[in-house]
């Protein structure tokens, strides 16, 4: 079997943990498997490096930032190879250049385009464990790029796809994917199996376990994933195309506090207004989420929508800049104390009543809903952020997601 194993920063945070990971990999190797290991930077190294850069130059270029950040992963792969070597197992570390992990040109948030597998295959055929830097790539200028925070998951999935691996295991510091954040919902339960689509919704909603692009890629190439803990031997969560419908049609509840709502009132009620509004925002790369437009009255209408909280001020400024021109309106208001709570489940498609049940639970918990948005497998409500814990618990209970 060819196995790709990815370990996150906490799993390689110090000497003891590096040896723990080395031993887990060697176990597979000793069974005769081919083993490719993808690592993140040790512990909080990426944050430390970013802080160092900021101290020197708060306006450092993205190119130099990537040059700096890629050293984090380079450190962990080299140390891991040394650890394995000291345990008597042949291992070799490779960075993005040595593999040739080609990405798009943009620094800081590049996308993988093509991976050369020759070098890795050659090392595997010499019975070495191959340890590859996560998170990094190279672009057409022969510069280092990075894939965005949390991007090592995507490196692992891409390698598994390119190498046609038999297994792709993502090791982290939790036991798998949970029905809700256990810090908020105490009786949250580990999910045994989840579909790509559900995982994608959860990852995009900030569940934090997997980089959402890694899930996108796993779905595209049919790479089955296992998310499990590097600290114990529990079974983890399997992410695949069709999951067993274990129990309910809802598999999890997620929240996202990094949300703000912007309301633009009394816009002209005529064609092209929504286009102009969202086009101005898109031109500044601002992602818009839940959109609500009121019924037109006396030639005007209101449009409100949510954005990530960190770009709310910028979004308001962009709209303000066009108020005297293409976007005549009465006011632009921003509300920051809001959060999104969502239920996700592939079974929703064929089971009506999920939204009603969620709203009932929120009503019973006395939580007011400000805005609603749905997809085929998700219902999201916008609420006051101080209500999040209460809402999450109420919804989790209503769908009987606990053990
Ligand atoms: N080290 C990078 C980060 O902290 C990539 C990763 O861990 O996946 O974002
Ligand atoms: Mg991660």
Keywords:
binds magnesium ion; six-stranded antiparallel β-sheet; 12 helices; alpha/beta; eight-stranded mixed β-sheet; 18 strands; Carbamate kinase; 3 domains; VC0802-like; 403 residues; 34% helix; Alpha-Beta Plaits; binds aspartic acid
Structural summary, described in words:
With 403 residues, the chain is α/β, with parallel strands linked by helices. The protein folds into 3 domains: 2-173, Acetylglutamate kinase-like (Carbamate kinase), CATH 3.40.1160.10; 262-336, Alpha-Beta Plaits, CATH 3.30.70; 339-398, VC0802-like (2-Layer Sandwich). The protein is 34% helix and 27% strand. The protein has helices spanning 15-30, 45-56, 62-86, 96-99, 118-125, 152-162, 196-204, 212-221, 273-283, 312-321, 354-364, 388-398; strands at residues 2-7, 34-39, 91-94, 101-103, 112-115, 129-133, 136-138, 144-146, 167-172, 193-195, 225-229, 237-240, 252-268, 291-293, 300-308, 331-344, 371-375, 378-384. The strands form 4 sheets. The chain has an 8-stranded mixed sheet, sandwiched between helices. Strand 4 (101-103) and strand 5 form a beta hairpin. Helix 11 (354-364) crosses helix 12. The chain binds aspartic acid and magnesium ion (MG). Magnesium ion binds at residues 8, 150, 153. The site of aspartic acid has 12 residues, from loops.
